[in-house]
Amino acid sequence: LIDRRKFQSLFLEVTELLKLQNSSVEGVKYWYQVKESKKLVKCFLNYLKHDKSEVSVLFDMISIFLVHTRIDYTFLKEFYVIEVAEGYPAQMKKTLLSHFLHLFQAKELGHDHLVVSMQMLILPMLAHAFQNGQSWDVIDQTIIKTIVEKLLDPPEEISAEYDEPLRIELLQLATLLLKYIQNDLVHHRKELIKFGWNHLKREDSASKQWAFVNVCHFLDAYQAPEKIILQVEIILQ
Prior knowledge:
Blueprint: H1 4-19, H2 27-50, H3 55-61, H4 74-86, H5 90-106, H6 111-131, H7 135-138, H8 141-152, H9 156-159, H10 164-181, H11 189-200, H12 208-221, H13 226-236
Helix pairs in contact: 1-2, 4-6, 5-6, 5-8, 6-10, 10-12, 11-12
């Protein structure tokens, strides 16, 4: 098994090297650092391609996108979308999703780290699973309950800490569930409409447009009281 401490130490070195590009380092030294950082990332990728069980490493790796850099990491994006989100076996995707939910609840990752993880890994992975008949190999009722109660409808003191980018990703997650597995969310309708509705009522919010999409999917999936439909129409005017 990979030595987690050594890995994290090496990866910290990579991100620190990338940050140096914004400082006054000499050109030759900078490009040497760039070359070395790309080599390290490719070494980590090679390891992961041969051992898919280390799902936690995927979340360490993805933090590379939290650093603004001129280095082309298209190859890493393709790894997440093609190799992982589309190519991992369904049971491994379930393990990965469960690990993400643990990281989210334990607050082991910052909001920006959660956002990029959802954008590049979790949402594409779930979309591919739903579209290719893997839904119940990747999720189950326990996972759905965790998503609804711990991410979408947690105690107010927790949800109040969410920033706008994270709210947007959570709205997209909720919309994805409503689009593909609405029949299995019936017992969570109250929490789901509350989540979308609260964001729909937010003024001057970047997440508001995503809330419109979310609520529309909810109304399409379930019979909603005429009062709610009327209120949505009023907001849209």
